[in-house]
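Weekly structure sync, notes
Attendees: PL, DS, HV (note-taker this week)

Item 1: Mur ligase central domain-containing protein
DS walked through the input record. Source organism listed as Campylobacter ureolyticus ACS-301-V-Sch3b. Sequence as pasted into the shared doc:
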Amino acid sequence: MIFLKFLTHFLLILSLGFYLITTLQWFSYKFERVFFHFTKPLWHLIFLFIPIVCYFGLRLINENLFFIYFYIILLPSLIIWHKKLDKKLVFTSRVKRFFLILILTTLFLDIILFKKAFVLPVFAPLFISFFISFCFEKLNAKIYMQKAQKKLESMPNLTIIQITASYGKTSIKNFLYQILNEKFNCYKTPRSVNTLMGLVKDINENLNTDVQIYIAEAGARKNGDIDAITKFLKPQIVIVGEIGSQHIEYFKSIDNIRKTKLEALNSERLKKAFLHSSTLKKDDDKIVIYDEYLQNIKANLDGVSFEMKFDESYKFHAPILGIFNASNLAVCICVAKFLGLKIDEIKLKISNLKSVEHRLQIVSKTPKFIIDDGFNGNFEGMSASYELVREYDGNKVIVTPGIVEATKQMNENLAKIINEIFDLIIVTGELNAKIFSEICDKNKLFILKDKNDLIKTLSEKTKAGDLILFSNDAPSFI
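Item 1 (cont.): predicted structure, written out as tokens:
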């Protein structure tokens, strides 16, 4: 019985630690976001609060009751929960260090208190382990950042292009890389890496010293985030794309979002800034409002066409879907022109661009027309993609969770557009299910609670010739 008490306490601490570190990894190890911006509070209740209450409560009644609860209910539930996640815990070096600290701390406290305490501590090993882990990671991050800074300083001829926006950052980054890469030795941040420590890690591990242009994406969740990245990178060229309400729950207002994005202008080495008109800035010696050069935009399922008016009007066509991509391409054209590329060179590059993965990417045209727009998560971009497929001659199907980190009104407006255009609406997850249920036609609405059933659902409800649009994607923890 004594051994069982010891083992159960040890496994309980590991279980709580496993759940917490998994959720923290999703939210960049920010406790505030895990506890105050979490969209699945029921998970906290099941895997955190109830286990702690039962540990103290059931033991007062009968110690065996907790053993039964832990081994028959909690532990199997946690295993099944993690198995079903589409974004499982990644055992990075940081996570491995945390578990080592947690194991050693728990064992140390248990040995000390083993015969002295009726109930072994729960909060103490978790608190101590997270405190030690976070202190170590902070020190490690400082050392790692200094290493990256020295690497950048050793590359005096490196041009850094920093891109930030409410949406479109990754598309701009990928388009610009394709346009510049043949003339310059370019490197871009991978995937959606856009945090300060993500950039630090990328520079230390992936940036070669012979690179001429480093294209870096910069994201933010609070005031000061862009400023910190800007002071670290010291970019010579800055792009501030369209400002909108993405992540407004963190910033509280569009004005706060705008101020944060414009922190990119604080670079001490700034030569030129290319800004969207939504920044409310004006042209000057260093600032170019790039979308003011944009004219005559047309978009269909073959791509997007537009004109740019410099000394004269120049026509461009890109095999990229989405009318909003004209603005993303416009800033790339302005930057490429600033860096010395001729208009004819840029036009050729634009005409041969490849779609950014998961952003209005045509996956197939037959037997079903499948478009993957899984990384498009804002109202403007999503609604524009719906207009793109409105005239498709066939059954139109959408798979979406709605908009994440947005207001109720925005999701209501989106649901109205979706209900007007699509013949079958598959809503994934519970986040916005109620909104869609209240607005969309019940005959064409299907709420999919488990995304593991998506392939089966599509095979049953769609046929050859249907257009299927995957609009936004949210991991199961959203």
